[in-house]
Amino acid sequence: MPVAGLLKRGQLDVLIQTLRARGYRVVGPRVKGGAIVYDEVSRADELPVGLVSVQQPGRYRLEDSANGRLFDYVHGPESLKRFLFAPQETLWTVAQNGEVSFKETLPEQRPLAVIGARACDLAGMEVQDRTFLKSQYNDFSDPYYATRRENLFIVAVNCTRSAATCFCASMNTGPRAREGYDIALTELEDSFLVEAGSAAGAAVLAELPLQPAREMETTQAAQAIEAAARSQTRRLDTTDIQALLFNNLEHPRWDDVAERCLSCANCTMVCPTCFCHRETDVASLDGKQSEHQRQWDSCFTLEHSYIHGAQIRPQIRQRYRQWLTHKLASWIEQFGVSGCVGCGRCITWCPTGIDLIEEVNAIRAQPEAKT
Questions:
Q1: How far apart are CA 280 and CA 294, in angstroms?
Q2: Whose CA is closest to 350, among 259, 260, 252?
Q3: Angle between helices 253-260 and 356-365 (to 10 degrees)
Q4: What value does the CA radius of gyration of the chain take, rounded to a whole number of Å?
Q5: Short-list 181, 188, 180, 183, CA closest to 160
Q6: 109 and 68: one domain?
Q7: Among the three residues 173, 202, 230, which one is the final residue of a domain in this structure?
Q8: 3-class secondary-structure state, position 8
Q9: Which of 81, 167, 176, 274 could form a disulfide with 342 if both were Cys (CB 3.0 to 4.6 A apart)?
Q10: How many CA atoms lie within 13 A of 339 on its CB side?
Q11: Quick one: 270 and 125 in the same domain?
């Protein structure tokens, strides 16, 4: 869809109020605990005005630039994942009252509008769609994910800054949002270039006080996004990456990374595409009812590989290898796309600053000798 126009920065509140009037619960970026996370917003002045995020391997901090911009922070630890694939939820309940009965517990919630999703988040959502929705890669549609997906309205923000840990340009997933959004914003000096990505988005924009966009503004927006792409210093070389990883399963680099990896699961928790989970039954004390619950898990936990009395991957080297080879290689076989979208969150939020690009490059530089 074409550019719809310009929205003055001071009129962003109109967008929020329009969404709320249409029945959406609106969430957007807010500062909590020293990081920018998604939380409910009712006014534009609750957004992170003037803040930029400085990210390095194992390091994240916010700084006040005093420039008045709302979306210069790049991204925080959260993507769209928890709004679609809940961190913990009850899938069904079982009751015994003369007879055993099962009851499905599909999500019942207001439609949700998320403001501030980045291109890498949209790419991550597209990967999760292939995991949870029926497609050529999947014969089953998860009704819990599907219900939330149908009720999600996305206001994306094109990145005009990149963090030092970003590498979305090399993964062809950003910094411009290409699809999957209802409305896309590109922040300029005192306004937003606004685009509609769906009929629902166009209907919302029809209620906003938009001004015509001149060629000068569209050029400025395109140049700012391109500058963000050029500023990225990290790049993942995906050339023959499946063969590279599958042919180096005993590479000494796995031992090297295991010396540094805490197996804490931070990388999988912040990853937009990781979907490992566990399912448990929680019974009431009287034994008359129980809940079957699903909650996020990680292939880095020792218990996740427990099958019939034994851990399949008892060593950290095995668990890190499982994560990296699945993310970058076998995911392509499963879903026709890489499991990595280049957001760099796993690098930023790793306590020891492990960089998956560095690990791949080390294996590529000295592959195992084949006899």
A1: 7
A2: 260
A3: 160
A4: 22
A5: 188
A6: yes
A7: 230
A8: strand
A9: 167
A10: 25
A11: no
For residue 48, what are its two tokens?
């992170």
Report the chain's terminal Cα–Cα distance, integer Å: 55
CA distance 115 to 7: 15
Tell me the C-alpha distance between 309 and 71, whole Å.
49
Task: Give yes or no for residue 242 having a pLDDT over 50.
Answer: yes
Closest CA to 362 of 263, 231, 228, 260: 260
Helix (H) or strand (E) holding 186: strand 183-187
pTM value surpassing 0.70: yes
Local structure of 73: helix, strand or coil: coil
- More confident call, 135 vs 40: 40
Q: What is the DSSP letter of 368?
A: P
Retrieve residue 332's tokens: 């392509």
- Contact between residue 355 and residue 57 where contact means Cβ atoms under 8 Å apart: yes
**How is residue 43 annotated by DSSP?**
S
- Average pLDDT of the residues of the chain: 94
Same domain, 10 and 150: yes
Q: How far apart are CA 226 and CA 176, in angstroms?
A: 8
The two tokens of residue 217 are 């503004």
Beta bridge partners, 17, equal: none
CA distance 166 to 164: 6
Question: How many angstroms separate the CA atoms of 72 and 239, rounded?
Answer: 32
Q: HSE-up of 135 (CA within 13 Å, CB side)?
A: 13
Distance CA 235, CA 83 (A): 29
What range defines the domain where residue 346 resides? Answer: 241-365
Q: What is the pLDDT of residues 263-298, one digit of tens each?
A: 999 999 999 999 999 999 999 888 889 999 999 999
